[in-house]
Write a structure and sequence with these properties.
The chain is an alpha+beta fold. The chain has helices at residues 2-9, 26-38, 40-47; strands spanning 16-18, 23-25, 56-60, 64-66, 72-78, 85-97, 104-110, 122-129, 138-149, 155-162, 167-178. It is elongated. The model is unreliable at 17-24 (pLDDT under 50).
């Protein structure tokens, strides 16, 4: 930046400047000036930072429930138009059975279209939990990195089901961002 270049260009004194904890030599000064003033690649790298861009987030804070033994959609994030690249998806939910030892399955699915049960799209992650007590919430956290997405609009859905009785779900979150 102009401010940084100005500070570097205005370092004066002998060939060494004592900064207290380390010594800054004139060769460092020359290197720094050369790198920041003559390196178009530095500006290119700063201007083209990709990690963390294209961030999308959705949440559902109400309590939902199902008796379905087939997956149903709890939350579906729809992105805007994304550039092609590699992305990371994170999902989180808290689930609880109405009776002890009932299995609850949770999946995260990419590019699912509407339908019950959802069978299309790509399953990014799937996990199960079997809480040992009724009405005890289990934390479900899923992470999938290096998902190669084409340019365009995409969906990420969090689906869940229970083996029998009723499953309750709350604090559902889905986020997606670009990593390269």
């Amino acid at each position: 930046s102009q401010s940084f270049n100005n500070r570097i260009n205005n370092i004066t004194g002998s060939s060494q400047i004592n900064t207290g904890s380390f010594v800054l030599t004139s060769s460092f000064n020359a290197f720094t000036q050369s790198y920041y003033q003559n390196s178009a690649s530095f500006n290119s790298r700063i201007n083209n930072i990709i990690f963390g861009t294209e961030y999308h987030y959705d949440e559902l804070n109400i309590i939902g429930s199902t008796t379905s033994t087939s997956y149903i959609t709890c939350l579906k994030l729809t992105t805007g138009a994304l550039p092609a690249g590699n992305y990371r998806v994170q999902a989180y939910a808290e689930v609880s059975p109405s009776n002890a030892n009932r299995q609850i399955d949770v999946e995260v699915r990419l590019d699912q279209t509407d339908g019950t049960p959802p069978t299309n799209g790509t399953v990014l992650s799937e996990t199960s939990t079997r809480p040992s007590a009724a009405s005890v919430y289990a934390n479900i956290s899923m992470l999938k990195s290096n998902i190669s997405l084409t340019a365009g609009i995409h969906t990420i859905a969090l689906n869940y089901k229970i083996s029998s009785n009723t499953a309750t779900i709350r604090n559902v979150r889905i986020e997606l961002f670009r990593i390269s």
